Amino acid sequence: MQNGARIEYDYSVAKAFTFATILFGIIGMVVGVVLAFQLAFPELNHLAGEYGTFSRLRPLHTNGVAFGFTLSGIFATWYYVAQRVLKVSLKESPFLMTVAKLHFVLYFITILLAVVTLFMGYTTSKEYAELEWPLDILVVVWWVLWGVSIFGLIGIRRERTLYISIWYYIAAFIAIAMLYLFNNMEVPTYFASGGHGSWLHSVSMYSGSNDAIVQWWYGHNAVAFVFTVPIIAMIYYFLPKESGQNVYSYKLSILAFWGLLFVYLWAGGHHLIYSTVPDWMQTMGSVMSVVLILPSWGSAINMLLTMKGEWKQLQTNTLIKFMILASTFYMLSTIEGPIQSIKSVNAIAHFTDWIPGHVHDGVLGWVVFMVMAALFHMAPRMYGREIYSKSLMDTQFWLQTTGIVLYFTSMWIAGITQGMMWRAYDEYGSLVYSFIDTVTVLQPYYTIRAVGGLLYLIGFFMFSYNMYKTATAGRILDKEPLNASPVAA
């Protein structure tokens, strides 16, 4: 490229990951809605034999949404954002282009194999780490390829300053690399049992409390460095670009960055309160979780204040609405988690439906909203076409917002009801309710949750259709929009 010439960015890999984001989002959310209706109406468990039961489908849902949808969204935005903020095109380096394409191919194969193996019942049974050892090795390979892409593009950049979004992507890469390797140390059962077990199954190299400690050090930080840190990277790029506003405070973004990185890694112990792990570790998990409010809200407030003086854009720009509501749900979720980690609250909340309520107001409200907003912003610039339909976007926004509210409110009520019923004693010290009593009383709330999930899924289908029509039938743009994305009526 000659001096002064416009950089021709290459979006081929970003487009591939965008397709994967939509595909795995549909799969993960369809399974999630099926599971929600199975909990409300247990007879649905038996319609498809063993392959349609809750226990067989549940790992498919969590892995599909976390590592299918969310990681695809992270990679799609990385290959878009990195080129633009580093001022370098992927096609300037044939080596990095090859790495990026290999990254996508191996990633896509891994997720498809994950769907097959989980359906067949091959699972380590560890939360967010269900994939067996051959797939773990594949994950490590394409994660390293992503690292080569990150530092390779940084190495050939024209823009000397690393924008804050790049910091957050780097943090996600390094932290997950460390966490994933340590938590997935395992030995094929065939070797551990002297040649009697399956070569595909494995057993963890840790046992008992050690296994629990490592698992939740990993499990909670999978939430931190898949559902939080790279999503913050997205909003720090896409909100200023879409609104035409500067980030409110660059210093606050860096302060919150280092706060998140230091504190988050110590908070996993709050999953093990009242368990066999040392009491000091449980207390440390609680304390660090409460401290985590500061950097989390620091990031979220920074995002909201970016719109200072420009709130009128919410009336006209649906993408800004998605991002601002995402930031609001981020604040809600990051105050709710620390509250649940306080020991006295945890005594009521643990093992109840309040926990999935908390997870889903974070994932549906923060993660999915932000990923969809990012892809909507990217679409006109990647495909050179206007976003197909504003009315479809607006309908999707309100339908999904209603779905989230129904979901988390029903689960809050169900969870606290469960916790209180489990702890109810009569004057003789006997439990007042049997376990089945608590299950029966929750059925209406499970139904509301399932309806909320269905509304959200319908909204995601609207998003998928809007993206497809944008790429294939949107009005062709004469030039790339500077800020607000062009949308047809």
Structure description:
There is one protein chain. This protein is an all-alpha fold and 489 residues long. The protein is globular, with a radius of gyration of 23 Å. The longest helix is centred in the N-terminal third of the chain and has 33 residues, at 54-86. Helix 9 packs antiparallel against helix 11 and helix 15 (354-383) packs parallel to helix 18 (443-473). The protein has helices spanning 12-40, 54-86, 94-120, 133-155, 164-183, 189-192, 208-226, 229-243, 250-264, 279-291, 293-305, 313-316, 318-341, 343-349, 354-383, 390-422, 435-441, 443-473; strands spanning 186-188, 202-204. The chain has a two-stranded antiparallel ribbon with strand order 1-2. It contains 18 helices and two strands. It has one domain: Cytochrome c oxidase-like, subunit I domain (Cytochrome C Oxidase, Chain A). Helix content is 71%, strand content 1%.
How would you briefly describe this protein structure?
Helix content is 71%, strand content 1%. With 489 residues, it is mainly alpha-helical. A two-stranded antiparallel ribbon has the order 1-2.
Which characteristics define this entry?
single chain, 489 residues, mainly alpha, two-stranded antiparallel sheet, 71% helix, 1% strand, globular, transmembrane helix, transport, Cyt_c_Oxase_su1_BS
